[in-house]
Amino acid sequence: MSDAIVEAVKKHPAPEGLVYTYGTAGFRTKAEVLDSVLTRVGLVAALRSRSLKGKWIGVMITASHNPPEDNGVKLVEPLGNMLQEDWEVISTEIANKASPEDVSKYYHDIATQHKADLDTPARVVVARDTRASGSRLLGCLQDGLKAAGAEVKEYGFLTTPQLHYMVRCLNTEGTKDAYGTPTEKGYYEKFGAAFKTALKGKKPSGSLTVDCANGVGGPKLTELIKHLPPKEEGLEIFVINDNVIKPESLNVDCGADFVKTNQRAPPSSKAGPGDRCCSLDGDADRVVYYFKDANNVFRLLDGDRIATLVASFLGDQVRLAGLADSLKIGVVQTAYANGAATQYVEQHLKLKVDCTPTGVKYLHHAAEKLDIGVYFEANGHGTVIFSPDTLDTIAKHEPKSPGQKEALDVIRACIDLINQSVGDALSDFLLVEVVLAHKNWGPQEWLSTYTDLPNRLLKVVVSDRKIFKTTDAERRLVAPEGLQAQIDKEVQKVRQGRSFARASGTEDAVRVYAEAATKAEAEDLARKVSELVK
Ligand code: 16G
Ligand code: ZN
């Protein structure tokens, strides 16, 4: 087998002088320099599967909201979680080995260290987004998988959350935790049926315009719609920016990242005042809502808003079902969450808030410790997870009145509607629509729950971002020495001030966030802190 590995690695030589890192979202960079990485990721996926006695491991080829010329790859654990940290280190190591022989030796060393018996079957599920480079990179990955002797299930194009779903379904098939049928049809049927049940005959008002970033979410949403109730009974959806025939248009002037960063609708949007809109990113694991208010002003309803909306709804339903004493709901945020959102959850909803570093895996881990964990990053990544004990409590609960039964049915349908394996833009927006329909709210009512503090996010280019070390979920700097004290001084000068600086995990820069009572103060604070960081 080692000869096969040497040959496969030789076939896709690594460009000289490049250093690869398995970061918060896997490997991600210009597609033209990723061939060698994909082959080696194939080897790691096979090893990871063998170290888990042949459980299915997922490999997703995507660069999410990045420009069309980029690509990337990430590995998915058996229940749909992000790759375990020690395997991130292994992935980085193997990607940077100089010679094919070094790769092969490292492969065998890791197999021994992690008790990955090379005679055990290795099972790997593979999918990709719609980028032009995807098919070439898939070939490179296949070469690695073949050399490692893995059994491969290839799904072609999928959204990232669909791939996570397949992995979880395959690993739970036939058990008491069976998650669903591991096919695309199975996915649409599961979420489509749950949407219908969760609505309980309530019809969402108006329509929803979904911007698909010209990515894989477009064709997949079109399929999903076929499994939703007809628009006369359910939700009328207008799909826009779903051109995957022109891959160079991916994420260009559209998509969740465009909307969140520019604080405006995609220029292609024709929605009128009060019309609900949402934008997915290139691989459909992120969603943000927005609308034009009565004065034609753009209003964003970001991940913070989705979290507060969903937490308040689930809180109500849990209370109505008579479960408030046995189940505690918590919200997990990052430092980017608007201070007003945090305050709303703690003081108005009276729920606990945890703060973690940026990156889905940190939020997910924190949410796993809660009975019902609602986690969203402000940028729209997120989901709700229910602990195994919670699922058990909900399954066994006997309602004592028709009102309790009604709420219990809604909670059970929501559990099916929420993709438990990972944040899923399609499942998330269906959930938002269910909540709005039940509350009989439009976007204006949703927006009115609290007022965001004015804020500003700046990107500061520095000579070495690695010197910026943080603590307290990235809210405070411990290095460079003395910098935090200077930031504190500036923060104290403004009303309701808060600011932090952290090294980006995806770009060579430091990000500075500031918020304050007024726009002028927030902008001023962000600028001053950026000056300190430079
Ligand atoms: C990655 C993370 C995302 C995070 C972003 C921060 C995942 C799947 N993705 O895209 O959650 O918000 O990085 O980027 O975890 P930054 O470190 O450049 O600010
Ligand atoms: Zn994404």
UniProtKB/TrEMBL annotation:
Instruction: Domain (Alpha-D-phosphohexomutase C-terminal): give its ranges.
Output: 458-531
Q: Which GO terms describe its molecular function?
A: magnesium ion binding; phosphoacetylglucosamine mutase activity
Show the SUPFAM superfamilies listed in the entry: Phosphoglucomutase, C-terminal domain (SSF55957), Phosphoglucomutase, first 3 domains (SSF53738)
Task: Tell me the InterPro entries matching this sequence.
Answer: A-D-PHexomutase_a/b/a-I (IPR005844), A-D-PHexomutase_a/b/a-I/II/III (IPR016055), A-D-PHexomutase_C (IPR005843), A-D-PHexomutase_C_sf (IPR036900), A-D-PHexomutase_CS (IPR016066), AMG1_II (IPR049023), AMG1_III (IPR049022), PAGM (IPR016657)
Coiled-coil intervals: none
Q: Which keywords does the record carry?
A: Carbohydrate metabolism, Isomerase, Magnesium, Metal-binding, Phosphoprotein
Q: Which CDD domains match?
A: PGM3
- Where does the record place the Alpha-D-phosphohexomutase alpha/beta/alpha domain? 57-96, 98-174
Q: What is the uppermost EC class here?
A: isomerase
Q: Which residues are listed for substrate binding in this entry?
A: 377-379, 502-506, 511
Query: Which catalysed reactions does the entry list for this protein?
Result: N-acetyl-alpha-D-glucosamine 1-phosphate = N-acetyl-D-glucosamine 6-phosphate
Q: In which pathway does it act?
A: Nucleotide-sugar biosynthesis; UDP-N-acetyl-alpha-D-glucosamine biosynthesis; N-acetyl-alpha-D-glucosamine 1-phosphate from alpha-D-glucosamine 6-phosphate (route I): step 2/2
- The residues the record assigns to binding Mg(2+) are 64, 281, 283, 285
E.C. no? 5.4.2.3
Cofactor: bound how, per the entry note? Binds 1 Mg(2+) ion per subunit.
Q: Which residues form the Phosphoacetylglucosamine mutase AMG1 domain?
A: 182-288, 302-441
Record-annotated active site: 64 (phosphoserine intermediate)
Say if the entry is tagged with keyword Repeat: no
Its required cofactor(s), as named, are: Mg(2+)
Q: Which GO terms describe its biological process?
A: carbohydrate metabolic process; UDP-N-acetylglucosamine biosynthetic process
Q: Which family does it belong to?
A: Belongs to the phosphohexose mutase family.
Q: What is the role of this chain?
A: Catalyzes the conversion of GlcNAc-6-P into GlcNAc-1-P during the synthesis of uridine diphosphate/UDP-GlcNAc, which is a biosynthetic precursor of chitin and also supplies the amino sugars for N-linked oligosaccharides of glycoproteins.
Q: What is this protein called?
A: Phosphoacetylglucosamine mutase
